[in-house]
Amino acid sequence: MDHLLKMLDLSKEDITEILNLADQLKYENKNGIKHHLLKGKTLGMIFQKSSTRTRVSFETGMYQLGGQALFLSNRDLQIGRGEPVQDTARVLSRYLDGIMIRTFEQQEVDDLAKYGSIPIINGLTDFCHPCQVLADLMTIREFKGRFEGLKMCYIGDGNNMANSLIVGGLKVGMEVSVACPDDYQPDAKALEFAKEYGDKFSMTNIPLEAAKDADVLFTDVWTSMGEEAETEKRKVAFAGYQINDEIMAAAKPDAMVQHCLPAHREEEITEKVFEAHANEIFEEAENRLHAQKAVMVMVMGGKASDEDD
Ligand code: CP
Ligand code: NVA
């Protein structure tokens, strides 16, 4: 694995390897075992959108792995003033050992990988959110012990989360059902991929239909970063696309609920359902740290260091 650009690039084996390493790093972290697998390495973190979890978990993760992370906001970099990504990639490749980028266009992430010579990790684009979905899969496996035979349901906007969940869920062997309004469907590339999975994938505009017998329910904000001008229009379009008691009653009695956060209570999820499943949702948030550490070790070439730091 050279980069993490999108879930579509990963094989089932890659995902399993990341999740196994993430489980191991989580266990070691909880037991006070140091794992300085990226000692002396530097990760650049380019943020063109806001972040709480991604920024803090990457920075902390890099520190726990013995390296350091640089927070590079759009406002500070010349990229924000129009320096081409091709040049930024070639310059940063000479200083850094890896780049995590959160931006709008997937093309910008792909171009960093194309023109640079160091590993690139996608920390969210309009198209996908692979780091989040690796943490989500880690959490599902942690709570349910398996993927095979489980049904994942996503209700809401056909956005970056929907795209990555469809691809990730199907790749690891889950059945995936999605409910989106007709005008807010997932990306054609995710739907094209899902076609290969026949009746293991289903798409509807009726949330209750998608939620039937689900083992894991996902939702996400109605208005993603960059779409704020459409907030009011989206409130109308997404009314009813909410995880609530009625949806929970349609799912399996032991269904878990996941949310990438930040959550908008009483919009895509009720306060009641959110709080009833808070342990699963915050474990999911914690798992960003462990899953991303595994990704960084795998793409940035971490080796066990026998030096005592
Ligand atoms: N879920 C997620 O990516 O959170 P942040 O936007 O806070 O990084
Ligand atoms: N779909 C959301 C996810 C935030 C983590 C967004 O892109 O804003």
The CATH top-level class label of the largest domain? Alpha Beta
- What small molecules does this complex bind? phosphoric acid mono(formamide)ester, norvaline
Can you tell me the overall shape?
A: globular
Treating each run of at least 4 consecutive H or I residues as one helix, how many helices? Answer: 12
CATH architecture type of the largest domain: 3-Layer(aba) Sandwich
Assembly state (oligomeric): single chain
Residues in helices, as a percent range: 40-55%
- Kindly report the spatial arrangement of strands forming the biggest sheet: 7-6-5-8-9
Number of domains: 2
Cα separation of the termini: 28 Å
CATH T-level fold name of the largest domain: Rossmann fold
CA radius of gyration is 19 Å
Give the overall average pLDDT.
Answer: 96
DSSP strand content? 5-15%
**Which stretches of 5+ consecutive residues score pLDDT under 50?**
none
Structural class: alpha/beta
- What letter string, H or E per element, gives the SSE order? HEHEHEHEHEHEHEHEHHEHH
- Say which CATH homologous superfamily of the largest domain is assigned: Aspartate/ornithine carbamoyltransferase
- Main beta-sheet strand count, sense and barrel state: 5 strands, parallel
